[in-house]
Amino acid sequence: MALRYGKMLIHHHLYKSLRFVPQLVVKRSTTSDFCNQMSGKREYVGYGVNGSPVYADLPEYPMPAIRFREGGDEFCALREKERGDWNKLTLDEIKKLYRGSFCQTFAEMQAPTGEWKLAAGISCWAMAIAILMTVLEQLLEPLPESFEEDKRQAQLKRMIALEMNPITGLASKWDYEVEDWKFRNNIGILTHLTTIIETISQYLTYRQIFMMQ
């Protein structure tokens, strides 16, 4: 009996809470509703880009979904006159009819806008500011301690002592037996060979002079 009474109580409270659920549901506005509201009284004339009632001047989609202007009295009168003989339309009326349906011509859509000048100007300003900040940082900020001469010499000695990169690097250019750079030894050898060659050439010169006598 108690179990049955408990179930009835649960069902009663559940039904009471569910009665107010439909009142909380609110209709959400979609993009189509917004486009229909923004299009106003403009006439639908085609599919456009994606079927939405949106006007856009695009060479890829030359027929927008709606006209550019809303149908006023003057425009409606021109539309009625348009249905007749076009020879009776003046050039100004033809232009008004076109501007009522379209905002720009193909020549106006494809004309250069000059936006590249703005992009180029912003890019030049950004590069100038970056270069200026780099130069100021190099001039104003002190160099680290590792750039001092004694620290550099100590680092060089440590790299030689550790025999870093002994194949083609720093250690390969150091003579550990003589404890000096190899190119200095090569310079000494070349100087010695030059002296020997000069001595031999002088000896041959003296001998040639002696033979001529």
Automatic annotation (TrEMBL):
Main localization of the protein described in the UniProt heading: mitochondrion
Gene Ontology CC: one annotated term: respiratory chain complex IV
Keywords in alphabetical order: Membrane, Mitochondrion, Mitochondrion inner membrane, Oxidoreductase, Transit peptide, Transmembrane, Transmembrane helix
Entry's Gene Ontology molecular function annotations: oxidoreductase activity
Description of how the protein assembles with itself and partners: Component of the cytochrome c oxidase (complex IV, CIV), a multisubunit enzyme composed of 14 subunits.
Task performed by this protein: Component of the cytochrome c oxidase, the last enzyme in the mitochondrial electron transport chain which drives oxidative phosphorylation.
Record protein name field: Cytochrome c oxidase subunit 4
